[in-house]
Amino acid sequence: MVKTLILGAAYVDVVINVPQLPFSGGDVTGDLRSYIVGGSAFNVYGAMHAAQAEADLFVPVGQGQYADLVRAELKRRQIPELLPVTAADNGWDIAMVEPSGERSFLTIPGIDQIWQNDWFDRIDLADYRYFYISGYQVEDEQIASQILGRLTRRADDAYILFDASPRMSHLTAKTVRQLLQKNVIIHCNEDEIGYFGAAGASIDETASSIFAKTQSPVIVTLGARGTYYFDGQRSGILPADHAEVINTSGAGDTHCGGLLAGLASGKDLVASAKLANTLAAKVVSQENSSL
Questions:
Q1: Which end of the chain has a smaller Cβ tally under 10 Å, C or N?
Q2: According to the model, what pLDDT value does residue 287 have?
Q3: DSSP 200-254
Q4: Distances (CA, A) of 205 to 218, 232, 234
């Protein structure tokens, strides 16, 4: 099995159940459920670990109360701390969960948003066949150029999986152009894929235009309807696994991790996407956002 580098952030999710989201000037009473270490990269790692896929978690762990929680959780799970740094605390968020399981976030960014180019000197890119990055990590154009510039030094047959994330609308045109390069797998939802194509284009049309640039699969999650895939020749929708939804936090991250786990183990795209669907269904049926 080949190795994956999961690049990004570990955050602390302050999970609060609410009857509905507050409106401007309103007042909603919440039920504080837990403090959970999460963040896109951490959740992707959890999915890959659950699938017994080999991966390294490359997230900065800073100094402060939230960094202490992250560090303790890494130690508890026996996950190596590859990137201890200073200068700031880790980020955190308030995750408001409605009765349907839908979640909304108020995020306070942390040390991952002051990413330093020399952090990459602590690893050897040649050790990895797959790389994960999220839209959260490339929202700042300067940081995006640092990260994507370094990743151009990966092996010729190594792939990046780019998880568009809810921050896709904040990426600059320059960053999107940098992402639409050969051997970049685009993973997004129905709303996010629109930022890659012409206004009014169908998913098929946009996926085809992406593939023409990346020569790599395009994955679009469709919620309860399943997962759309396009590999340059075939496209289709794989039905979602049934799940009793408790909390959708981490569903997309876990789906990315499942897809990477499948590909890294030698499965084809369809089998990998089915594994991703299975793990995503599992994570939404629990309160924790990470497997």
A1: N
A2: 67
A3: T--HHHHHHHHHHHH-S-EEEE-GGG-EEEE-SS-EEEEPPPP---S--TTHHHH
A4: 11, 11, 13
**Higher-pLDDT residue of 95, 49:** 49
Spatial separation of the C-alpha atoms in residues 261 and 22, rounded to whole Å: 38
Burial class (CB within 10 angstroms; exposed 0-12, middle 13-18, buried 19+) of 52: exposed
Cα(289)–Cα(286) distance, integer angstroms: 7
Q: Torsion angle, CA of 122/160/256/86, rounded to 10 degrees? A: 30
The pTM of this model reads 0.91
Please return the burial class of 182, using the count of CB atoms within 10 Å of its CB with bins 0-12, 13-18 and 19+: exposed
pLDDT computed for residue 247 by the predictor:
65
Q: In this structure, what DSSP letter does residue 101 have?
A: S
CATH topology of domain 4-8+39-61+114-285: UDP-N-acetylmuramoyl-L-alanine:D-glutamate ligase (3.40.1190)
Q: Which residue has the tokens 């085809």?
A: 208
Long-range Cβ pairs for the range 208-212 (8 Å, 24+): 210/180, 210/186
What is the rounded distance in angstroms from the CA atom of residue 273 to the CA atom of residue 276? Answer: 5
Q: Find the distance separating the first CA and the last CA of the chain, reported in whole Å.
A: 21
Of the candidates 261, 227, 247, the one whose C-alpha atom is nearest the C-alpha of residue 290 is 247
Residue 12 β-bridge partners: 37, 92
User: What are the respective helix, strand and coil percentages of the chain, to the nearest 5?
Assistant: 40, 20, 40
For residue 20, what is the DSSP state?
A: S
- Is pLDDT of 94 > 70? yes
